Amino acid sequence: MQKAAAFLSALAVLPLAASAATSAASTERVFTIRYTATVGPLPAGQGPVDVFVPLPEKSDGQDVLSLEVKSGLAGAQETETRFGNTFWHGHAKVSDGKPIEVTVLATVRRRALHGPIDQAGPQSYSADEDSKFAKFLGPDRLVPLKGAPIEAIDNEIIEKLGPEKAKDQALVARAIYDYVVDHMEYKKVGTGWGNGDTFWACSAKYGNCTDFHALFLSLARRHGIPSKFEMGFPIPSDKPAGKVSGYHCWVEFYLPGRGWVPVDASEAQKHPEQRALLFGGQPPDRVQLSIGRDLVLPGMKGEPLNYFVYPYVELAGAATKTVTWTLDYADSAPPAAVQ
Fold first, then answer.
1. Each residue of 142-163: pLDDT tens digit?
2. 139, 165, 210, 226: least surrounded by Cβ within 10 Å?
Protein backbone atom coordinates (compact mmCIF):
# COMPACT_ATOMS: atom_id res chain seq x y z
CA MET A 1 0.00 0.00 0.00
CA GLN A 2 2.88 2.38 0.66
CA LYS A 3 4.15 2.04 -2.90
CA ALA A 4 0.68 2.54 -4.33
CA ALA A 5 0.38 5.72 -2.25
CA ALA A 6 3.78 6.89 -3.46
CA PHE A 7 2.67 6.38 -7.05
CA LEU A 8 -0.46 8.47 -6.53
CA SER A 9 1.65 11.16 -4.83
CA ALA A 10 3.89 11.30 -7.88
CA LEU A 11 0.86 11.97 -10.05
CA ALA A 12 -0.04 14.90 -7.82
CA VAL A 13 3.24 16.80 -8.21
CA LEU A 14 3.37 17.14 -11.96
CA PRO A 15 5.17 20.51 -12.19
CA LEU A 16 8.10 19.26 -10.10
CA ALA A 17 8.21 15.96 -11.98
CA ALA A 18 8.09 17.77 -15.31
CA SER A 19 11.12 19.86 -14.39
CA ALA A 20 13.11 16.79 -13.35
CA ALA A 21 12.12 14.89 -16.48
CA THR A 22 13.10 17.71 -18.80
CA SER A 23 16.55 18.15 -17.32
CA ALA A 24 17.53 14.48 -17.56
CA ALA A 25 15.44 13.31 -20.53
CA SER A 26 18.36 12.96 -22.93
CA THR A 27 20.46 10.58 -20.83
CA GLU A 28 18.47 9.03 -17.97
CA ARG A 29 14.95 8.77 -16.67
CA VAL A 30 13.45 7.30 -13.51
CA PHE A 31 9.75 6.51 -13.44
CA THR A 32 7.23 4.38 -11.61
CA ILE A 33 4.79 2.18 -13.50
CA ARG A 34 1.56 0.64 -12.30
CA TYR A 35 0.63 -2.25 -14.59
CA THR A 36 -2.72 -3.82 -13.78
CA ALA A 37 -4.27 -6.94 -15.28
CA THR A 38 -7.95 -7.72 -14.71
CA VAL A 39 -9.07 -11.25 -15.52
CA GLY A 40 -12.64 -12.43 -15.96
CA PRO A 41 -14.86 -13.07 -14.28
CA LEU A 42 -14.28 -16.65 -15.39
CA PRO A 43 -16.95 -19.34 -14.97
CA ALA A 44 -17.09 -20.58 -11.37
CA GLY A 45 -15.90 -24.11 -10.81
CA GLN A 46 -13.78 -24.29 -13.96
CA GLY A 47 -10.03 -24.60 -13.84
CA PRO A 48 -7.21 -24.62 -13.40
CA VAL A 49 -6.61 -20.90 -13.87
CA ASP A 50 -3.12 -19.66 -14.74
CA VAL A 51 -2.23 -15.97 -15.07
CA PHE A 52 1.11 -14.83 -16.49
CA VAL A 53 2.19 -11.16 -16.29
CA PRO A 54 5.57 -9.97 -17.68
CA LEU A 55 7.84 -8.05 -15.33
CA PRO A 56 10.48 -5.40 -16.03
CA GLU A 57 14.01 -6.67 -15.48
CA LYS A 58 17.59 -5.49 -15.51
CA SER A 59 19.24 -5.00 -18.90
CA ASP A 60 22.04 -2.88 -20.36
CA GLY A 61 19.83 0.20 -20.36
CA GLN A 62 17.48 -0.61 -17.51
CA ASP A 63 17.64 -1.03 -13.73
CA VAL A 64 14.65 -2.09 -11.65
CA LEU A 65 14.94 -0.12 -8.42
CA SER A 66 11.84 -1.59 -6.78
CA LEU A 67 9.28 -4.23 -7.73
CA GLU A 68 6.11 -5.41 -6.05
CA VAL A 69 3.25 -7.60 -7.29
CA LYS A 70 -0.10 -7.45 -5.50
CA SER A 71 -2.95 -9.89 -6.13
CA GLY A 72 -5.60 -11.89 -4.32
CA LEU A 73 -4.49 -14.85 -6.44
CA ALA A 74 -1.60 -16.90 -5.07
CA GLY A 75 1.47 -16.56 -7.26
CA ALA A 76 5.21 -16.03 -7.50
CA GLN A 77 7.91 -14.62 -9.74
CA GLU A 78 9.33 -17.13 -12.22
CA THR A 79 11.83 -17.17 -15.10
CA GLU A 80 11.76 -18.86 -18.49
CA THR A 81 15.11 -20.36 -19.39
CA ARG A 82 15.60 -19.65 -23.10
CA PHE A 83 15.90 -15.86 -22.84
CA GLY A 84 15.77 -15.34 -19.09
CA ASN A 85 12.48 -13.43 -19.11
CA THR A 86 10.92 -12.94 -15.68
CA PHE A 87 7.20 -12.96 -15.05
CA TRP A 88 4.62 -13.37 -12.32
CA HIS A 89 2.63 -16.62 -12.43
CA GLY A 90 -0.61 -16.89 -10.49
CA HIS A 91 -2.47 -20.18 -10.16
CA ALA A 92 -5.80 -21.42 -8.82
CA LYS A 93 -7.21 -24.95 -9.03
CA VAL A 94 -10.63 -23.61 -9.98
CA SER A 95 -12.23 -20.23 -10.57
CA ASP A 96 -14.44 -18.80 -7.84
CA GLY A 97 -16.36 -16.80 -10.44
CA LYS A 98 -14.93 -13.46 -9.32
CA PRO A 99 -12.61 -11.16 -11.31
CA ILE A 100 -8.89 -11.56 -10.63
CA GLU A 101 -6.71 -8.46 -10.38
CA VAL A 102 -2.92 -8.40 -10.55
CA THR A 103 -1.02 -5.13 -10.05
CA VAL A 104 2.67 -4.68 -10.76
CA LEU A 105 4.29 -1.64 -9.14
CA ALA A 106 7.84 -0.96 -10.28
CA THR A 107 10.32 1.89 -10.18
CA VAL A 108 12.61 1.78 -13.19
CA ARG A 109 15.76 3.66 -14.10
CA ARG A 110 16.17 3.81 -17.87
CA ARG A 111 19.38 5.07 -19.50
CA ALA A 112 20.00 6.27 -23.02
CA LEU A 113 21.94 3.67 -24.99
CA HIS A 114 24.78 4.30 -27.42
CA GLY A 115 25.95 1.17 -29.21
CA PRO A 116 29.54 0.61 -30.40
CA ILE A 117 28.60 1.30 -34.01
CA ASP A 118 31.61 3.55 -34.74
CA GLN A 119 34.23 1.32 -33.15
CA ALA A 120 36.51 -0.84 -35.25
CA GLY A 121 36.35 -4.53 -34.51
CA PRO A 122 36.64 -8.08 -35.87
CA GLN A 123 34.22 -9.44 -38.46
CA SER A 124 34.16 -12.97 -37.04
CA TYR A 125 32.86 -14.28 -33.74
CA SER A 126 34.84 -16.01 -31.03
CA ALA A 127 33.83 -19.53 -30.00
CA ASP A 128 32.27 -18.10 -26.85
CA GLU A 129 30.24 -15.60 -28.84
CA ASP A 130 29.11 -18.28 -31.30
CA SER A 131 27.61 -20.42 -28.53
CA LYS A 132 26.14 -17.47 -26.64
CA PHE A 133 24.29 -15.94 -29.57
CA ALA A 134 23.04 -19.01 -31.44
CA LYS A 135 19.49 -18.35 -30.18
CA PHE A 136 19.56 -14.92 -31.87
CA LEU A 137 20.54 -16.30 -35.29
CA GLY A 138 17.79 -18.76 -36.18
CA PRO A 139 14.28 -18.24 -37.57
CA ASP A 140 11.12 -17.71 -35.55
CA ARG A 141 7.70 -18.91 -36.64
CA LEU A 142 6.86 -15.58 -38.31
CA VAL A 143 10.48 -14.50 -38.85
CA PRO A 144 11.85 -16.87 -41.52
CA LEU A 145 15.29 -16.54 -43.06
CA LYS A 146 14.41 -18.08 -46.41
CA GLY A 147 11.79 -17.47 -49.08
CA ALA A 148 11.60 -15.63 -52.38
CA PRO A 149 10.34 -12.29 -50.96
CA ILE A 150 13.14 -12.09 -48.38
CA GLU A 151 15.82 -13.24 -50.80
CA ALA A 152 14.77 -10.65 -53.39
CA ILE A 153 15.04 -7.82 -50.84
CA ASP A 154 18.35 -9.16 -49.53
CA ASN A 155 19.79 -9.30 -53.05
CA GLU A 156 18.67 -5.72 -53.69
CA ILE A 157 20.32 -4.48 -50.48
CA ILE A 158 23.63 -6.27 -51.07
CA GLU A 159 23.81 -5.28 -54.74
CA LYS A 160 23.39 -1.64 -53.76
CA LEU A 161 25.93 -1.97 -50.96
CA GLY A 162 28.62 -3.62 -53.10
CA PRO A 163 30.76 -6.73 -52.47
CA GLU A 164 33.45 -5.06 -50.37
CA LYS A 165 31.14 -3.19 -48.00
CA ALA A 166 29.02 -6.34 -47.70
CA LYS A 167 31.89 -7.91 -45.77
CA ASP A 168 31.43 -5.39 -42.94
CA GLN A 169 28.54 -6.43 -40.66
CA ALA A 170 28.05 -2.91 -39.32
CA LEU A 171 27.56 -1.62 -42.86
CA VAL A 172 25.24 -4.50 -43.72
CA ALA A 173 23.12 -3.79 -40.64
CA ARG A 174 22.93 -0.10 -41.55
CA ALA A 175 21.90 -0.95 -45.12
CA ILE A 176 19.14 -3.22 -43.78
CA TYR A 177 17.96 -0.51 -41.40
CA ASP A 178 17.86 2.05 -44.22
CA TYR A 179 15.90 -0.34 -46.43
CA VAL A 180 13.30 -0.98 -43.72
CA VAL A 181 12.90 2.71 -42.91
CA ASP A 182 12.68 3.70 -46.60
CA HIS A 183 10.36 0.93 -47.80
CA MET A 184 8.01 0.38 -44.84
CA GLU A 185 5.23 2.76 -43.78
CA TYR A 186 4.05 2.97 -40.20
CA LYS A 187 0.28 2.59 -40.30
CA LYS A 188 -2.33 0.33 -38.76
CA VAL A 189 -5.19 -0.22 -41.20
CA GLY A 190 -7.11 -3.32 -42.17
CA THR A 191 -5.95 -6.67 -40.84
CA GLY A 192 -2.66 -8.55 -40.96
CA TRP A 193 -0.40 -5.95 -39.39
CA GLY A 194 0.90 -6.22 -35.82
CA ASN A 195 1.87 -9.89 -35.87
CA GLY A 196 5.57 -9.31 -36.53
CA ASP A 197 5.33 -11.27 -39.79
CA THR A 198 8.26 -10.89 -42.18
CA PHE A 199 6.34 -12.08 -45.24
CA TRP A 200 3.57 -9.59 -44.42
CA ALA A 201 6.16 -6.80 -44.25
CA CYS A 202 7.70 -7.87 -47.57
CA SER A 203 4.37 -7.74 -49.40
CA ALA A 204 2.25 -5.15 -47.60
CA LYS A 205 5.18 -2.82 -46.85
CA TYR A 206 3.39 -1.31 -43.88
CA GLY A 207 2.55 -2.18 -40.30
CA ASN A 208 3.56 -1.38 -36.75
CA CYS A 209 6.83 -1.84 -34.87
CA THR A 210 6.56 -5.65 -34.84
CA ASP A 211 6.35 -5.80 -38.63
CA PHE A 212 9.23 -3.35 -39.16
CA HIS A 213 11.48 -5.28 -36.84
CA ALA A 214 10.51 -8.74 -38.09
CA LEU A 215 11.86 -7.69 -41.48
CA PHE A 216 15.05 -6.36 -39.91
CA LEU A 217 15.53 -9.58 -37.92
CA SER A 218 15.09 -11.84 -40.95
CA LEU A 219 17.53 -9.88 -43.09
CA ALA A 220 20.17 -9.44 -40.37
CA ARG A 221 20.10 -13.08 -39.30
CA ARG A 222 20.49 -14.17 -42.93
CA HIS A 223 23.92 -12.53 -42.76
CA GLY A 224 24.88 -14.22 -39.50
CA ILE A 225 24.27 -11.06 -37.45
CA PRO A 226 22.82 -12.00 -34.03
CA SER A 227 19.68 -9.94 -33.54
CA LYS A 228 17.19 -9.94 -30.67
CA PHE A 229 13.61 -8.75 -30.43
CA GLU A 230 12.78 -6.65 -27.36
CA MET A 231 9.27 -5.80 -26.21
CA GLY A 232 7.91 -3.31 -23.73
CA PHE A 233 5.96 -0.08 -23.47
CA PRO A 234 6.75 3.46 -24.61
CA ILE A 235 6.95 6.04 -21.83
CA PRO A 236 6.03 9.41 -23.37
CA SER A 237 8.80 11.99 -23.13
CA ASP A 238 6.48 15.01 -23.38
CA LYS A 239 4.42 14.25 -20.26
CA PRO A 240 5.72 13.45 -16.76
CA ALA A 241 2.74 11.22 -15.97
CA GLY A 242 -0.15 9.54 -17.72
CA LYS A 243 -1.45 6.36 -19.29
CA VAL A 244 0.12 4.18 -21.96
CA SER A 245 -2.25 2.81 -24.57
CA GLY A 246 -0.15 0.14 -26.29
CA TYR A 247 3.17 -1.67 -26.54
CA HIS A 248 6.37 -0.84 -28.39
CA CYS A 249 9.17 -3.09 -29.63
CA TRP A 250 12.69 -2.60 -30.95
CA VAL A 251 15.74 -4.73 -31.74
CA GLU A 252 19.43 -4.97 -30.97
CA PHE A 253 22.08 -6.57 -33.14
CA TYR A 254 25.51 -7.75 -32.06
CA LEU A 255 28.88 -6.80 -33.53
CA PRO A 256 31.69 -9.27 -32.81
CA GLY A 257 34.09 -8.13 -30.12
CA ARG A 258 32.15 -4.92 -29.62
CA GLY A 259 28.67 -5.46 -28.25
CA TRP A 260 24.96 -4.91 -28.77
CA VAL A 261 23.70 -2.08 -30.95
CA PRO A 262 20.12 -0.76 -30.50
CA VAL A 263 17.88 -0.12 -33.51
CA ASP A 264 14.37 1.34 -33.71
CA ALA A 265 13.34 1.40 -37.36
CA SER A 266 9.64 2.09 -36.82
CA GLU A 267 10.29 5.20 -34.72
CA ALA A 268 12.80 6.35 -37.32
CA GLN A 269 10.12 6.09 -40.01
CA LYS A 270 7.65 8.02 -37.84
CA HIS A 271 10.24 10.64 -36.82
CA PRO A 272 12.72 11.21 -39.68
CA GLU A 273 14.63 13.78 -37.62
CA GLN A 274 15.66 10.94 -35.26
CA ARG A 275 16.79 8.55 -37.99
CA ALA A 276 20.51 8.85 -37.31
CA LEU A 277 20.03 8.59 -33.53
CA LEU A 278 17.88 5.46 -33.72
CA PHE A 279 20.52 3.41 -35.48
CA GLY A 280 22.99 2.79 -32.67
CA GLY A 281 21.24 4.94 -30.08
CA GLN A 282 18.14 4.75 -27.96
CA PRO A 283 16.53 7.39 -25.74
CA PRO A 284 15.31 6.43 -22.23
CA ASP A 285 11.65 6.64 -23.24
CA ARG A 286 10.60 3.01 -22.72
CA VAL A 287 10.40 0.13 -20.29
CA GLN A 288 11.47 -3.35 -21.41
CA LEU A 289 9.46 -6.40 -20.35
CA SER A 290 10.64 -9.30 -22.52
CA ILE A 291 13.06 -10.60 -25.14
CA GLY A 292 12.35 -12.99 -27.98
CA ARG A 293 9.53 -14.58 -29.94
CA ASP A 294 7.75 -17.95 -29.73
CA LEU A 295 8.02 -17.95 -25.95
CA VAL A 296 7.11 -20.94 -23.80
CA LEU A 297 6.58 -20.01 -20.15
CA PRO A 298 6.92 -22.62 -17.40
CA GLY A 299 3.42 -23.74 -16.45
CA MET A 300 1.63 -22.75 -19.66
CA LYS A 301 -0.12 -25.40 -21.76
CA GLY A 302 -1.06 -23.46 -24.89
CA GLU A 303 0.84 -22.60 -28.05
CA PRO A 304 4.09 -20.59 -27.76
CA LEU A 305 3.50 -16.85 -27.38
CA ASN A 306 4.23 -14.82 -30.51
CA TYR A 307 5.56 -12.18 -28.12
CA PHE A 308 4.98 -11.41 -24.44
CA VAL A 309 3.99 -7.96 -23.27
CA TYR A 310 0.33 -8.26 -22.31
CA PRO A 311 -1.02 -10.53 -19.54
CA TYR A 312 -1.60 -14.08 -20.74
CA VAL A 313 -4.27 -16.25 -19.14
CA GLU A 314 -5.17 -19.93 -19.47
CA LEU A 315 -8.35 -21.64 -18.29
CA ALA A 316 -8.23 -25.42 -18.18
CA GLY A 317 -5.03 -25.35 -20.22
CA ALA A 318 -6.43 -23.21 -23.06
CA ALA A 319 -5.73 -19.53 -23.71
CA THR A 320 -8.55 -17.14 -22.86
CA LYS A 321 -8.90 -13.51 -23.91
CA THR A 322 -11.01 -12.58 -20.89
CA VAL A 323 -8.37 -10.15 -19.66
CA THR A 324 -7.87 -6.39 -19.79
CA TRP A 325 -4.93 -4.24 -18.72
CA THR A 326 -3.95 -0.68 -17.87
CA LEU A 327 -0.53 0.92 -17.47
CA ASP A 328 0.07 4.24 -15.71
CA TYR A 329 3.45 5.92 -15.31
CA ALA A 330 4.85 8.84 -13.36
CA ASP A 331 8.34 10.33 -13.42
CA SER A 332 10.00 10.13 -10.03
CA ALA A 333 13.30 10.47 -8.20
CA PRO A 334 15.18 7.24 -7.43
CA PRO A 335 15.01 5.92 -3.86
CA ALA A 336 17.79 7.40 -1.70
CA ALA A 337 19.34 3.98 -1.08
CA VAL A 338 20.10 3.40 -4.74
CA GLN A 339 21.04 6.90 -5.93
1. 999 999 999 999 999 999 999 9
2. 165
